[in-house]
Task: structure prediction
Amino acid sequence: MAVTIKDIAKEAGVSVSAVSLVLNNRPCRISEEKRKQIREIAQRHHYAPNQAARSLVTKESRMLAFILPDIENVFFSSLAKRIEDCCRREGYMLLIANSNDQYEQDKVLLRNISARGVDGIFIIVSNESYRYKSKLIQELQNLPIPYVMVDRVYEQFVCDKVLYDNEQGAYLAVQHLQENGHTRIGCVVNTASNNGRLRLQGYKRALKEKGIKFDPRYVAQGDYHFESGYQAAQELLKTDITAAFVSNDMMAMGFLKKLYECGLTVPQQFSLVGYDNSLSPFILGVDLTSVAQDPQRLGEEACQLLFTRLKDSQAPAKMVCLPPQLIVRNSVGKME
Ligand code: RIB
Result:
C-alpha cells in the first residue's frame, strides 16, 4: 500500500500541512533538522504525491491533452513528442488521443477528455471537421477549459491558434521546380482539408507568376496517406508532367513507389518535392526535397499559447502563422 502524507506526518510527529509545506518547498516555521527528517522519511517510503487528491485542493490536474488526426503519420507523432517534452518541462502530463481524421471522434474526444478534468487541450482537427465547422466550433466554445487549434485551423474563428503558412509552402515548392526548368508540374493535394486548398492556391500562384496556364489534368486528389500518393501517380503519369509537387511526404513516398515501378529514376528522369519534411531519412534511393513545418517550433508556439491562456483566461486570442522552409536535397533535376 502506498505511503500517504498522513503516514509521514505520524512518523515525523508533525501535522499533515507541515509535511505538505516541506515536501513542496513552501516557506514554513519548521527546523532544518525536522525538514531533513521529513524528506528522509518520504524518500525511504518512495512517497509520490497523490495527484488526484492534490487536484481536489489545487483544482488543477496538471494534465493536458492533444487530439490529433493520425498518430501513424510521422508529422503528427513528431509534433506530439515535441509538445509532450514542452508540457513535461512545465510540470504537465500530456494525454495523446487519435481521432482517425473523423469529426465524430473530434467531438467525442473533446467531450470525454474535458470531462476527465484536464487543464487544457491542443487540437488538430480532422479534415472531416471542415464539413462540420459550425458544430465543432460549438463544441470548442462549450469547453470549460482553454484550448489551442494547431496546424489546421478555422480561419474566421477567433481563438488561440498556430499553423504554418500553407499557401507559401506550396509556392516555394513549385517555384523550386520552375527554377529547374520544369513547366509541366503535377500536384497532389487533399482539398478536403483547408491546408490542402491553400497549398493548391500556392501551386496556382507559382504557375501564374511564370505565365503558365493552370491545367486541371495535372492535379490529383490525395488523403495524406501513402496509398493515395501511389494512386495519384498512376493518374498523373498518364499526362506529360516532368515533375510533381506532392503535399505531404507520406503521399510522396507512395508517388515514388509508382515511379520506381514505371522504371523512372529521381531526379534523373522525374523530379519530386514533398511536404512536412518528415520522412526523408527513411526514403531509400532518393533524398527528398520537402517543405518543412518544423514540429519543434510549432510545438513550442502551441505550448506558449496554452500556458499563457492557463495563466490569463482573459488575454486576447492570438493567431501565430509561421513561415515554412523549403529543405532542398536531391530529388529535383534540371530540365535540359
Ligand atoms: O501530413 C499531414 C498533413 O496534414 C500535414 O501537411 C499537416 O499540415 C496536416 O494538416
User: Anything to note?
Assistant: Residues 73, 75, 151-152, 193, 195, 224, 248, 250, 275-276, 293 surround alpha-D-ribofuranose (CB under 6 Å). The longest strand covers residues 63-68. The mean pLDDT is 94. The domain at 63-164+295-324 is CATH 3.40.50.2300 (Rossmann fold).
